[in-house]
Design brief:
Blueprint (H helix, E strand, L loop, with lengths): L1 H14 L23 E5 L1 H6 L1 H9 L10 H12 L6 E8 L10 E7 L3 H12 L3 E6 L2 E6 L5 E6 L2 E5 L1 H12 L7 H7 L7 E6 L11 E4 L2 E4 L6 E11 L2 E10 L2 H21 L3 H8 L2 E5 L2 E9 H13 L6
Antiparallel strand pairs: 1-2, 1-8, 2-3, 3-7, 4-5, 5-6, 6-7, 8-11, 9-10, 11-12, 12-14, 13-14
């Protein structure tokens, strides 16, 4: 349980920080992602922890009694259970190989911030109950837990590399020139989202493509999903400008004909759902969704004001059957 929780905390901590802007005077994190990774993701934690709208929204959410009741309590709980003070981080980049859809066996993150190496390791060991052993790998000092499923190394006092041991070593191999960095198509997809609050790009594993085929049911009406069988890359982003949240889900298609078919399928599904809804708030929500094509990319975009999100959250709290 301790091992699994530590790995989960490492992944969550990495996801709470962005990829863009993550660099030091010695390294650029975006250039350290090893070939073999098929996912890049990030979140801008400095914007999150300083955004009063986000803090207030969390504080006002209905929560279970055993959950942190305030935003500050949530950060405190993360530190108490993991030893990681998320306030020490400023930027990070997450990479992973999701080819094995059964488990996340390969992931890493490259974080930038202000790190006290001894204090960082001491807090993790104290709060998780795990001891980290040291070893050397190509002139880098590795900290690896007793079960050898999590490692750290400090590239300098501003940059931390962590994750599963093989992912950490692969990234070091990129630094030393012994391994190629990730291919351009994944990087190009990720860079579509620039400095978004949340961003992700993923090459779809072959064994996961079956999820996009077959029929889906809306009520008693079957909807063919065959047009989605040629998706090879998925992108996602969430951003915030003042009190407006915007999100994009994007699909890249290998076959040009499939893009229009997928556009028509999604547009039809949205129209159908809109006609089925009785609540005006849900109709407005669906009416705000835009679906459009640009080359081989299909984009589903949505903009919502914070007040609209709060209304939907209240509706979801009053009606447990609603699932957004």
């Amino acid at each position: 349980m301790k091992r699994g929780y530590l790995l989960l905390v490492l992944l969550i901590s990495a996801f709470l920080i962005p990829a863009s802007g993550c660099e030091s005077e010695e390294y650029k994190a975006i250039e350290l992602i090893p070939a073999g990774a098929n996912l890049i993701a990030g979140i801008q934690i400095d914007r999150i922890i300083s955004d009063q709208d986000i803090i207030d929204t969390y504080n006002d959410m209905e929560k279970e009694p055993d959950q942190p009741q305030t935003f500050d309590e949530a950060l405190d709980k993360l530190f108490e259970e993991s030893g990681i003070d998320i306030k020490d981080f400023s930027n990070a980049l997450v990479f992973a190989d999701t080819s094995d859809t059964e488990q996340m066996a390969y992931f890493g993150f490259i974080a930038e911030g202000n790190f006290d190496e001894d204090e960082f390791i001491k807090n993790i060991e104290k709060n998780t109950g795990e001891e980290f052993l040291t070893s050397d790998y190509k002139e880098h000092k590795l900290y690896t837990n007793e079960n050898e499923d999590a490692s750290f190394t400090f590239l300098n006092d501003k940059m931390l590399l962590g994750g599963t041991p093989d992912a950490v070593k692969d990234s070091i191999d990129v630094i030393t020139g012994d391994r190629q960095p990730v291919e351009d198509e994944l990087l190009d997809a990720y860079k579509r989202y620039d400095n978004a609050l949340v961003s992700l790009a993923m090459i779809v594993p072959e064994d996961a493509q079956d999820a996009f085929t077959g029929d889906s049911m809306i009520g008693e009406m079957p909807i063919s999903m065959d047009a989605f069988s040629s998706i090879d890359i998925i992108g996602f982003s969430v951003d915030k400008d003042r009190e407006t949240f915007s999100s994009r889900i994007e699909f890249h298609f290998l076959e040009a004909d499939s893009v229009q078919d997928a556009h028509d399928t999604i547009s039809g599904m949205i129209s159908m759902f809109k006609g089925m809804m009785e609540e005006p708030e849900l109709k407005e929500f669906l009416g705000n969704i835009e679906v459009f094509i640009s080359g081989s990319w299909l984009t589903i975009a949505l903009e919502m004001e914070l007040s609209q999100i709060e209304e939907l959250m209240e509706m979801a709290g009053d009606n447990p059957m609603m699932d957004f």
